[in-house]
């Protein structure tokens, strides 16, 4: 998710989120969610989504960072939208940086896991990968906690502490340089530092997934080489199709796959295509590229947005986001990809995969089977 808290009142947001964590849970939701009616999709599309374990490996529950938006009460309509989306596993991960990152991530984990715990009829927290299967079996939403940076790790020992507190995935860097390595928008990539190597090894030991989505090219390759376990690119696309520094080279994708890793294809418009139109069909171009390059077993989905996408964010926040990330988002009219910008976007993507000629088995792998395998290997 391309949003750094330090520039939009991070500490105000964290404090509001934590202080509202005592909100009571609502009754079991029964209302239908908004969005495109599911019945408009083909029977094959509906069947595939309904029977698949769908995992979105970058899917924050809500892209509204105003403090007043976090009463942490789950509305019946919101709960219904999560269920009707067809997505079982949401990797809830945000970027936290700055001198108070340690404290802020503690508050973030406490607030969101408390939120899930007070709404047990809707959510199930992910401890091990088997919790994804249990959530699917019981019609719940699996919530896996992650952080899109690792600045909150003050020492390698902190990795175990945060794992015990519920964190299951950590991106090594955000866009900029940190003590571990180099982010994707830096001019010079110095690679993974000695301290970064320590952190990766500590993550391997406790069973925390290493993510290099925002890392620079050299840092990405170093992390793949150093890690004893498979790692992930949870939300990026293929630079061979769209020359953008936040996207991954064929070399990185090959080396990731050689060690069992998976790349999640994102629906952020500028990362999908550099010209109009930009539709869900162009997302499938990236899936095609990975499948041809390294095999269908190494590609999945990482939306990098909530169910509604960036373009439904409050106008002031969207304006701030565009200003902060000109290099990533340029000046397109939209940030979301057409067709992948509403709560039933997984049905849209599944339909596009069907039109492209993929088998039911391969579609199941893309929708979540590949990330389920990776999470099983890493989380235990």
Summarize the helices and strands and which ones pair or pack:
Elements: H1 10-19, H2 43-51, E1 55-56, H3 76-84, E2 89-94, H4 101-117, E3 123-125, H5 130-137, E4 141-147, H6 157-164, E5 167-171, H7 194-206, E6 209-211, H8 217-226, E7 232-236, H9 250-258, E8 262-265, H10 269-272, H11 280-294, E9 299-301, H12 315-324, H13 326-329, H14 345-355, H15 360-379
InterPro entries: Metal_Hydrolase (IPR032466), Pept_M19 (IPR008257), TAT_signal (IPR006311)
Protein name: Membrane dipeptidase
Pfam families: Peptidase_M19
CATH superfamily: Metal-dependent hydrolases
- Using the coordinates above, name the CATH class: Alpha Beta
* Helix fraction by DSSP (H/I, runs of at least 4): 40-55%
* Overall pLDDT confidence: 89
CATH topology name:
TIM Barrel
CATH A-level architecture: Alpha-Beta Barrel
Tally of distinct domains: 1
């Amino acid at each position: 998710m391309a949003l750094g808290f330090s520039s939009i009142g991070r500490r105000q947001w964290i404090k509001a989120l934590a202080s509202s964590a005592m909100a009571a849970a609502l009754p079991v939701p029964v209302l239908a969610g908004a969005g495109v009616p599911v019945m408009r999709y083909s029977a094959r599309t509906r069947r595939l989504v309904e029977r698949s374990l769908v995992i979105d490996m970058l899917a924050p529950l809500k892209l509204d960072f105003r403090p007043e938006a976090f009463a942490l009460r789950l509305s019946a309509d919101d709960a219904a939208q999560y269920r009707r989306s067809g997505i079982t596993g949401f990797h809830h991960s945000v970027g936290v940086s700055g001198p108070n990152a340690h404290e802020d991530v503690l508050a973030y984990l406490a607030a969101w896991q408390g939120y899930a715990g007070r709404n047990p009829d809707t959510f199930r927290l992910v401890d091990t990968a088997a919790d994804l299967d249990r959530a699917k079996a019981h019609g719940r939403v699996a919530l896996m906690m992650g952080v899109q940076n690792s600045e909150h790790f003050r020492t390698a020992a902190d990795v175990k502490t945060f794992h015990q507190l519920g964190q299951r995935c950590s991106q090594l860097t955000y866009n900029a340089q940190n003590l571990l390595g180099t982010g994707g928008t830096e001019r010079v990539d110095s690679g993974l530092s000695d301290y970064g190597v320590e952190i990766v090894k500590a993550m391997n030991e406790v069973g925390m997934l290493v993510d290099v989505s925002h890392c620079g090219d050299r840092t990405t390759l170093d992390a793949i080489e150093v890690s004893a376990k498979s790692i992930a690119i949870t939300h990026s696309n293929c630079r061979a199709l769209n020359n953008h520094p936040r996207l991954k080279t064929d070399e990185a994708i090959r080396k990731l796959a050689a060690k069992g890793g998976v790349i999640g294809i994102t629906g952020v418009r500028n990362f999908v295509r550099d010209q109009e139109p930009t539709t869900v069909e162009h997302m499938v171009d990236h899936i095609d590229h990975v499948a041809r390059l390294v095999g269908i077993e190494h590609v999945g989905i990482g939306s990098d947005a909530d169910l509604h996408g960036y373009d439904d964010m409050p106008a002031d926040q969207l304006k701030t986001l565009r200003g902060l990330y000109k290099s990533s988002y340029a000046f397109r009219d939209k940030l979301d990809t057409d067709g992948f910008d509403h709560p039933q976007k997984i049905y849209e993507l599944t339909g596009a995969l069907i039109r492209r000629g993929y088998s039911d088995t391969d579609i199941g792998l893309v929708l979540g089977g590949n990330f389920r395998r990776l999470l099983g290997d890493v989380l235990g």
